[in-house]
Each structure stands twice: as C-alpha cells, then as structure tokens.
Automatic annotation (TrEMBL):
Any matching Pfam family: DUF7507
PANTHER family listed in its UniProt record: LARGE CYSTEINE-RICH PERIPLASMIC PROTEIN OMCB (PTHR34819)
Domain DUF11: residue ranges: 116-220
Renumbered residue ranges of the record's region Disordered: 52-107
Domain DUF7507: 9-51
Protein name: DUF11 domain-containing protein
Biased composition (Low complexity): 52-63
InterPro entries with a match to the protein in the record: Chlamydia_OmcB, DUF11_rpt, DUF7507, OmcB-like_DUF11
C-alpha cells in the first residue's frame, strides 16, 4: 500500500525472540478508499540468517551456510497479523488473537474506514400558515461496510418555529433531542453497516415567523472532533400571509377632477371607515385657499388608466375608474410606506394630474387603505420663445417680461398648464436653449407666488425646424 522497498528496520540485527519496528510511515486516505469502505495493506519482511555470538547477539559477519557451504537464502514472511478478511456480525473486521495459530494463510491487514453518511431532510407540508404543525423527517444512510458510532445530529429550526415536545422518534423509538435555542441535537447516534435510520419530529409554526420561505438545516458531526460527517440537508416551508390580520389591501379611484381640488367629490359617506387621504382640508398643498364647494359638479372615474407599484405590479382601472390591490403589502406592526404611480401616458388625451404622482401612503397590517388620483383637462397656455426674446447677455427683454406678467394674470383663476416651447435656430446648442427656458420658468414662478391660487404646472420643450434636404 505504501510502496516502500528495501527499508531498514530498527534494530537491524535481531536475536531469536526479538522484534523490530518500522515507524513514521503515512498513507493518505483517498476518495476511492472511502467508497470501498476499507484499505488493505500487505508487508513482507526479509532477512539473512546469521550465526549467534557467544553473548547471544546476532553475528552479522557470519552468515549461516548449507551443506555445500553456500549462504542460506533470506528468511521471508508476509504479514498475517491484524485482522481476518472476514467480518463479525456487526460488520467489523475480525481481530486475530494469535496470528501463529489462528491466522491460517498469510493475509493482509484490513482497516475499516468510516464510509459516506448520506443525510436527507423532508417536510410533510410545503405551504403553511401561522399556528400549523409540520413534521420533519431526517434520513441517515450508512454506505460503508462498518458501523459508525458517535454521530451527533444537529437540526437548526428557522426563527419562529418551535419544537413540539415528546414527538421526536428515531426508528420508532422515542428519543428527545437536546435543545439549545433553535438547535435540536441528538448525540451519539449509531448507524450500523449499510443501515438507514429515520428521525421524525413535529414543529409548531409560531407567530414570530413572518410570511415567506423558511429553511430548516440539519447536519451530522463527529461527536469527538466536531468535524462534519455529512453534507448539510435542508427542507423549505413557505408561510402564506394571513389575509385578515397580516395583509393590507389598497383600493382607490382615478377620477376626473372637475374643480381641480385634488378630492373626489362623489366619495360615498359609507366608505369613511377606511384609512383614506380624502379628508378635506382647505388649502391642500398650500395653494388652494377656497372652501370646499357646497354643490360640487359631478366627478366621474376615468377607465383604462394603468397604475404601477415599485415592484412592477400593474393594474388598470375599471369602467368606473376604480382599482384594488389585494394584499398589496405585508407591513410590520409599525406599518410600512406604500407607493403607487399612474402611467400618465394612459390618461385621456389632454388630461394632466391634479394630485401627487406617485403617491405614498402608510399601510397598517389588516387594514384597508384608500388612495385616489385626480386628473383633469387643463387649458394649455403656450409661450413660444426664441433667441430674439433675450439680450446678448442672456437676459429677458422687457417685452417678454411684460408678456409673462399678463399671462400670469390671465390664468390665475382658471387652472391651466404653461408650456414653454423654444424654437432653436440651426446650430444653436440645446444647453443654451434649456438655460433660457429655466430663466423664463423662474420668472413665471416668481410672479405666480403673488398671484396664483393653485399648483402651476410648467412644461418645457425644445423644437427645431426640420433640416433642409441637400438634394
């Protein structure tokens, strides 16, 4: 096995009844050895017969000779100590008590190796809710020809899972584990040769285990060294959300905000039990100062408008502009923020938002939350600009300033959208055009702060004349 030849032993000269040893030789166990379950080693000793001196020590200089005077052949022997090739009832190699009488023919020394332990883990249910009981099953298979003892099986439960006392069984024999936190340990497990044992136990799904996937992990370790003896085995359980107590549902409407106040005036009174953003306060957003109209014009829902959540969930309003998100989120005890945004490309032509977009509300577990979106048709006040409206140093000409003041006075009472359209000349850089439009927008907002009564929307666009054909 070691591949050693002509290696001297210590002592090198042996008197009758003496023995010598060859120490310090090593062999590295291979994967093939593990698969075979054992390694075999054969050694042969050889020595020249010599005479014995008067003091009883070997006389290496006087070899023994035969009748013709020729030296005797070397004496040799092949190892027959250690074990027989046979195994006992437990699968362990049989030790030879007296090699001289029991060994029979020369045989190799057999060393039984710890074979591969295969650990698998299963669970009887893949989907559960809080309060359920699940059963885990561990299977440990010994693939070697020898028994394996002192195996500690350690099973770590997910957070929120609680072991159900007096349910652990190993091969139909009750055996409680040692419990330390979430770790369950069965110490000193013995797995016989080519044997498979099964461990089962029950676990409660506790309230502190939140929705989602929960992984249970188990592994076998050597009780003496603590080294792993198996790969890690896992089993996954998914806890489903409890719709009444854990989910938060969002409902709402996208409506035609006729009076541009950001509130749905047709909100039914019986809906006031829900958490809502529809409680009226004069001056919402700091821009609207008129009291709520006593007889508001009818406001209707806008159908076919798409709304999107940050995780990509998309919903579309029905024929009445309504939408709902069942179990929109699973907020913790203190709640969680939830965002929803309208894809304004799906609004009717000419409509613009009168409410925040996106909107953020605070969700509470088990509560219904309402968030409405307003949009309306706005008159568009268009301001056409070009480089001629500015001086050489980039300042606005007096005529432009006067025109902006007149514009602000005209749209102060009627919600409108201001669109700045810059006609860029050939070769004029976009950077210069954007800078001039920003200057104009700042002037409009300065004037608006003294006059306007609603949140003004200013749009900006750069327009260029089509390039003339070179042909």
């Amino acid at each position: 096995l070691l591949g050693l030849t002509d290696v001297a032993v210590t002592p090198g000269d042996l008197a009758p009844g003496e023995s010598a040893e060859l120490l310090g030789q090593t062999y590295v166990i291979t994967a093939a050895d593990i698969a075979a379950g054992q390694v075999e080693n054969t050694a042969e000793a050889a020595g020249a017969p010599v005479a014995t001196a008067a003091d009883g020590t070997p006389d290496a200089g006087t070899p023994l000779v035969d009748g013709t005077g020729a030296p005797l052949a070397d004496a040799t022997d092949t190892s027959d100590t250690g074990t027989e090739p046979a195994l006992d009832a437990d699968g362990n190699p049989v030790t030879i008590a007296d090699p001289a009488t029991d060994g029979g023919v020369d045989d190799p020394t057999i060393l039984g190796l710890p074979g591969d332990l295969i650990l698998t883990k299963t669970v009887n249910r893949s989907s559960v809710v809080v309060g359920d009981v699940v059963t885990y099953t561990l299977t440990i298979q010994n693939g070697s020809t020898g028994a394996l003892a002192n195996i500690d099986i350690v099973d770590t439960l997910p957070t929120g899972f609680v072991y159900r006392a007096s349910t652990a069984v190993i091969d139909e024999v009750a055996r409680e584990p040692e419990i330390a936190g979430q770790a369950l340990t069965w110490p000193g497990v013995v797995v016989g040769a080519a044997e498979t044992i099964t461990v089962t136990y029950d676990v409660y799904v506790g309230n502190s285990a939140g929705p989602g996937d929960h992984v249970n992990r188990a592994q076998g370790f050597d009780a003496l060294t603590g080294a792993p003896r198996t790969d890690e085995a896992t089993a996954t359980v998914r806890i489903e959300a409890e719709p009444v107590f854990q989910c938060s549902t969002v409902i709402g409407r996208v409506f035609d905000d006729v009076n541009h106040d950001g509130y749905f005036n047709e909100e039914p009174q019986e809906d006031r039990m829900a958490i809502t953003d529809q409680t009226y306060y004069g001056g919402k957003g700091g821009k609207w100062f008129e009291p709520e109209p006593s007889e508001p014009r009818q406001e209707v829902g806008l159908p076919g408008v798409r709304l999107v959540t940050p995780n990509g969930t998309a919903i579309t309003t029905d024929e009445h502009g309504r939408f709902s998100l069942a179990c929109a989120d699973l907020p913790r005890d203190i709640g969680a923020n939830f965002m929803l945004k309208i894809d304004d490309r799906t609004l009717p032509v000419g409509y613009r938002m009168t409410t925040e977009n996106p909107r953020v509300v605070r969700l509470t577990p088990g509560m219904l939350t309402k968030m409405n979106f307003g949009a309306s048709m706005f008159p568009v006040a268009r301001v056409d600009l070009s480089a001629r409206a500015f001086t050489n140093d980039g300042e606005m000409r007096p005529e432009l300033r006067a025109g902006l003041q007149s514009l602000v006075n005209q749209i102060a009472a009627t919600p409108s959208v201001v669109r700045l359209g810059y006609q860029a000349a050939s070769g004029e850089a976009d950077r210069a055009a954007r800078s001039r439009m920003r200057r104009v927008e700042r002037e409009i907002r300065r004037l608006w702060s003294d006059t306007g009564r609603y949140a003004l929307t200013v749009e900006r666009v750069i327009e260029r004349a089509p390039q003339a054909s070179s042909q």
